[in-house]
Design goal:
The chain is α+β, with helices and mostly antiparallel strands and about 450 residues long. It is built from 13 helices and ten strands. About 50% of the residues lie in helices and about 15% in strands. The structure holds flavin-adenine dinucleotide (FAD).
Length: about 450
């Protein structure tokens, strides 16, 4: 049975989120973009205090609605909605910048919560997970290295010394690393072991001696000088770990299980990222349609031009197909309750498609807006940034394609014959044998 209906009670929640993001979060996003009052003055200290209090109030409204940390199961104080419902909520939040933070489901904290929940000891859960869940503390995930993003190339190491581990090496693009209270660091603990047993994860308090933010690297659009503000929030920190000592109790999961454990944080997260991409692309398509109906060229509305119509139609089709694929993947996860091979195939596929759909639809939207689309006065610039990003973060598209192909090929066998199983001459010969018998039997009867 296939049913695309959403139960009315949950639809009310979605409607509330849609209203709340439109009326509260989007204006906040826009106010933060300008960072000044209408008379052109920058916001002063008291002004920022008021804005922070306002944000806390918004978080409280989300909590009252029972949607704080909505990605979490009831064991962690969340509503335990399941992946399909999570997707439908993430689709709405994808249209905002500050939405995920206000709903307590912001990366990289979300993935780190899952990591500690699945792999952490009771002590680690109390010390690190609980304040993460309440939004009191923030975290970062430090895995990629400056010389390589592929785990087999990692060299940042952790060596056991009595009751401590000593970490040495460099990590790069640790999102929120400069502002985090603690970091989850992937380090090689046994370089001679097979790849999947080579590394372990450690929880490292950001203030531990030897943790140095070399630069707080930002993506395009932020002035380069911000990279040297190593105490700033946001950004993707370049971090050097020099003789960083952490207690043995800070090993997260078992020794050597780092790479396998890290999959806990990525699988569900990729589905949510994909659904936020649906939200972003829906907004881009809405903008395209409004613009096409409002702008003229040679006395004709853009919406009457066939090539513009083609761009709108292509975008709609791509978006609809992608949305259904993401929801199907979420439904499979809900049904199966585990990240099986079947589900890993779909997750790889939507991770790959997210980058392509973002790229195609946002590019068309920018193009249709002409010079305005190239300006920093619409959301299109931010959206455009997300397109190449989607194809790189959490692993390059090519790596996922290669992985997907390998998973698909497992379901097939090679043909031993000279010609393939679907070669007409062979199939016709088999069919002739069968139908000659049918004819003989019929005539003999
Ligand atoms: C916005 C953003 C946030 C990020 N946040 C974090 C974070 O919080 N923590 C963290 O640890 N990392 C983070 N990263 C890093 C991210 O995980 C890596 O960028 C990603 O794994 C790719 O590694 P790389 O950048 O070293 O690229 P490389 O591995 O050098 O790949 C570069 C290119 O080489 C080609 N290539 C690579 N592998 C293959 C392959 N198997 N087959 C064919 N071609 C291939 C592809 O064209 C690929 O794009 C973030 C990245 C971005 C963009």
């Amino acid at each position: 049975m296939i049913d695309f209906d959403i139960d009315p009670e949950f639809q009310e929640q979605i409607d509330w989120v849609e209203r709340f993001t439109k009326e509260e979060i989007e204006p906040l996003d826009n106010f933060m973009r300008a960072g000044r009052t209408k008379d052109g003055n920058p916001i002063d200290r008291d002004g920022w205090r008021a804005i922070r209090a306002y944000i806390e109030d918004l978080k409280q409204q989300v909590k009252d609605q029972g949607l704080w940390g909505f990605h979490l199961g009831p064991d962690l104080g969340g509503p335990g909605l399941g992946q399909v419902k999570l997707c439908l909520l993430n689709e709405k939040l994808g249209k905002t910048r500050m939405g995920p933070g206000i709903f307590g489901c912001q990366a990289p904290d979300t993935g780190n919560m899952e990591l500690i929940a699945h792999n952490g000891t009771e002590e680690q859960k109390k010390k690190y997970l609980e304040p993460l869940l309440s939004g009191e503390k923030h975290s970062a995930y430090s895995m990629t290295e400056p010389h390589a993003g592929e785990p087999g190339e990692f060299i940042c190491s952790a060596k056991r010394d009595g009751d401590e581990w000593v970490i040495n090496g460099e990590k790069w693009f640790t999102s929120n690393g400069a502002g985090a209270d603690f970091l989850i660091v992937m380090a090689v603990t046994n370089p001679d072991a097979p790849l999947l047993e080579r590394a372990s994860m450690f929880i490292v308090d950001r203030q531990t001696p030897g943790v140095e933010v070399v630069r707080n690297v930002h993506t395009y659009g932020t002035p380069l000088r911000e990279n040297y503000n190593v105490r700033g929030g946001g950004g993707h920190a370049y971090i050097r770990y020099s003789d960083v000592r952490v207690p043995a109790a800070n090993l997260l999961g078992t020794e050597g299980a780092g790479f396998v454990g890290s999959q806990t944080r990525l699988s569900g997260g990729r589905v949510h990222h994909a659904m936020r991409a649906v939200g972003v692309c829906t907004k881009a398509l809405d903008m395209m349609c409004e613009r096409a109906l409002s702008r003229k060229s040679k006395g004709e509305l853009l919406s009457n031009l066939q090539m513009v119509q083609q761009d709108i139609a292509d975008s709609y089709i791509q978006l609809k197909q992608f949305r259904l694929h993401v929801l199907y993947t979420a439904w499979l996860i809900d049904k199966t309750g585990a990240y099986t091979q079947e589900i890993r195939k779909e997750i790889a596929a939507i991770k790959i498609t997210a980058a392509k759909v973002n790229h195609d639809i946002i590019y068309r939207a920018i193009h249709l807006h002409g010079a305005l689309g190239m300006s920093n006065e619409t959301p299109l610039g931010d959206m455009w940034m997300s397109a190449p990003q989607m194809g790189i973060m959490d692993g390059a598209t090519e790596a996922h394609k290669s992985n997907l192909a390998k998973l698909l090929l497992r379901d097939y066998d090679a043909c031993e014959d000279l010609f393939p199983t679907y070669h007409f001459p062979k199939l016709i010969e088999e069919a002739q044998d069968k139908f000659e018998r049918v004819i003989d039997d019929y005539l003999a009867a």
